[in-house]
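Folds abound. A case:
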Amino acid sequence: HESCDTLAAGQSLIIFPEDSSHGYFDNLRKFYSGFAVLAGRMLRQGTDLPVFVSYYKKQDRAFIIDSPVRFSVLSSGTADLQEIADRMCDRANALARVVSSAAEDLNRFR
């Protein structure tokens, strides 16, 4: 409930949903759905949270943040929270490809 209170007060939360039980990989394998549980609870309370996906690649010291997507949009057409988490993991991996491409471009100028 503390997270919901924080969000209801207009503050932000940063949630790291990736499964790191087997280490960290450039291509993320899985997101846990806890962020979707929290966002769904807030939506039922009348607050449609923006969800931002980001990706950090330590090797390149590159960090990218995607445009926000409202949870109502993410959850439209499905009530399956793991499906939402899987789609967001795919989105993070798409960002990873952007980071890798940009890093390659920058390395050409060094």
Q: What stands out?
A: Residues 81-108 form the longest helix (28 residues). The longest strand covers residues 54-57. The mean pLDDT is 88. The two ends are 49 Å apart (CA to CA).
